[in-house]
């Protein structure tokens, strides 16, 4: 009897001890997971603000019909207003980078989010058309400061995983192009106390923007304290020397890459503006089919996660050359097959164009942050983004004009020529890069695993 009781006590002690050990391990595992997730708070907040910025931009085109009903204006008038939005957005790239160099990234990102959110909230009440245009221009300025400064911020917050971080940033932002039209449809049947239902889009966007700005201002300085102060020893806006930034373009390799990004931006923005119309006009597809294929073009943006990760392992230029090469070959195939191929085959080539185009975008920013000096990183990146956004802003006008003077296939052949030129420049930079041997060694190392 005594032995049985002793055995029972030992078994009970063993079970209790094992349960405590298991519970402690579980708690430690949860704690470790939470700590790992907290490391990405800067990325999460930065990507969330970027999503909102692009959401506000992509929400305008689907609302043009509602704006015509509300204000009685023409397509030309609305198109001009949206062009103003994009031009202000483009112009803000350089000054936002310079201000980040002088004041810190946190100040600039927070201010941009607050400005954009405030402008969005002004559209929640009935007002003249001039107020809509003014709000669009202010939103263009507020959202325009984010991307340039965010690339600099994330490259410093995650120096060993910059490509991955920028891949997440661009992927999150791109998916706003899928969400915005859906949100417009969702609010169409609702009632709103202050006016038309489309104003709910901007009410929600404004409130979310204010919340994200507050969270960003409170949280990010704790994680990246250096981004709350100026980089240079002088600091302050008065210390801006434009010559410091223009001298970057005197570097032959930097100027070549800047030209590469301009050519790509022209192609990408021309495509995004006219893919649906091209598919219905030149390919003869229905509106529903064209819309589905257009959505797929954006949905494949998840590839940015992979290219960003690979660029951290293999280097930036190899991924840039491969991504642009895929986009160029696929676009040539897309245009060549137009009129003869069905939705499945032609859609496949369009998806391949999306894979190459989206795959390039995060690596572009990561590469620039490796070649621009740290003390002028924001302004240097801003200068390049001003050029590429300017090229992107005029692309729809040029493509539209060529499509009317000639036809859509001719206009898209122009886009194929520009992305092919960008690919050629990328191959040149890769072939003349001193890091090619390092890239080849990395490829062999991965192949052995």
Structural class: mainly alpha
The CATH architecture assignment of the largest domain turns out to be: Up-down Bundle
For CATH, the homologous superfamily of the largest domain is named as: MFS general substrate transporter like domains
The radius of gyration over CA amounts to: 25 Å
Q: Could you give a short account of the major beta sheet?
A: none
User: Helicity, in percent?
Assistant: over 70%
The number of domains is 2
H-E string: HHHHHHHHHHHHHHHHHHHH
The helix count comes to: 20
- Unreliable stretches (pLDDT < 50, length at least 5) are 29-34, 232-239, 439-444
CATH topology of the largest domain: Growth Hormone, Chain: A
Structural features, described:
Residues 42-434 form the Major facilitator superfamily (MFS) profile domain. Keywords: Cell membrane, Membrane, Transmembrane, Transmembrane helix, Transport. GO terms for molecular function: transmembrane transporter activity. The chain is mostly helical. The protein has two domains: 40-225, Growth Hormone, Chain: A; 240-448, Up-down Bundle (Growth Hormone, Chain: A), CATH 1.20.1250.20. 81% of the residues lie in helices and 0% in strands. The protein contains 20 helices and no strands. It has helices at residues 2-38, 41-59, 64-71, 75-91, 93-103, 105-121, 129-144, 146-157, 162-174, 176-187, 199-223, 242-246, 252-281, 287-299, 303-314, 316-337, 343-371, 377-405, 408-431, 436-448. The radius of gyration is 25 Å and the shape is globular.
